[in-house]
Amino acid sequence: MLVPFSLVLSLLAAGPTPSRDACAFMLPKDLRLLVARQLPGYALPKQSDNLPADIQYQRKQGGNGCLGVAVGDFDGDHRKDRAFLVTSKTDVWLVVAFNRPEGWQLDKVWQAGDADYRMRLFVDVEPPGKYDDIGSSDTLEPGQVDTFTSKSEIVVTGATESSAIAFWKGPKGWVHLWLSD
Predict the structure, then answer these.
(1) CA-based nearest residue to 96, from 37, 148, 155
(2) What are the pLDDT digits (tens) for 108-143?
(3) Degrees, nearest 5: CA angle 71-54-152
(4) For a tag on the chain, would you pick the N or C end, based on fewer CB atoms within 10 A?
(5) Phi and psi dihedrals of 94, rounded to 5?
(6) Is the pLDDT of residue 2 over 60?
(7) Contact of 79 with 73, CB cutoff 8 Å
(8) Any residues with CB less than 8 A from the CB of 96 and at least 6 apart, and which?
(9) DSSP result, 134-179
(10) Are 83 and 69 in contact (CB under 8 A)?
């Protein structure tokens, strides 16, 4: 079948088709369904949740443009877990989903801020190791520790060009420390 020349020209003029959201493929369908069931009223991360300049910077650093999802082995079982930000009309939470043989297990870890601040927030992965708090406050907040050593990857979240907070699930639950402020 011969395609009319005018149709080819109109398709070329329309430009490339818009790319799929970079965050969409990072969360498997069964995990997305679990989040909808267990966290009603919270939206999953989208690439457009962040500022275009932050997306562009992350891509230049080798990322895919999604600042709201990170993939890593956060419990040392050699399965790829997910850390991501969910947003309601009022707030944003850091959630970690552990990839268990029997299915995903969700941990609602930390309230990251108000919903209108979401555009500056990110989530990332750091390698196993020893981490120390920067010690910028005299008193520790609930769940904050001075130091921790993790044998598995850790979750880092914060505000772009501002703060970074490291999270690790130890024997007594989630703890965190400030890497920058």
Answers:
(1) 155
(2) 999 999 999 999 999 999 999 999 999 888 899 999
(3) 25
(4) N
(5) -85, 125
(6) no
(7) yes
(8) 74, 81, 82, 83, 106, 107, 109, 155, 167, 169
(9) ---SSSPPTTB-SEEEESS-EEEEEETTS-EEEEEEETTEEEEEEE
(10) yes
69: tokens are 């999802």
Beta bridge partners of 124: 156
Burial 69-90 (b: 16+ CB within 10 A, else e): bbbbbbbeeeeebbbbbbbeee
Q: Which amino acid appears at position 54 of this protein?
A: D
Kindly indicate the confidence band of residue 181, based on its pLDDT and cuts at 50, 70 and 90: confident
Tell me the C-alpha distance between 48 and 120, whole Å: 11
Return the bridge partners of 118, or none.
none
Tokens describing residue 39? 């966290």
Region 82-99 average pLDDT: 98
CA-CA-CA-CA torsion sign (38, 81, 156, 19) = negative
- Taking alpha carbons only, the member of 80, 181, 162 closest to residue 121 is 162
Tokens representing residue 159 in the block = 């505000």
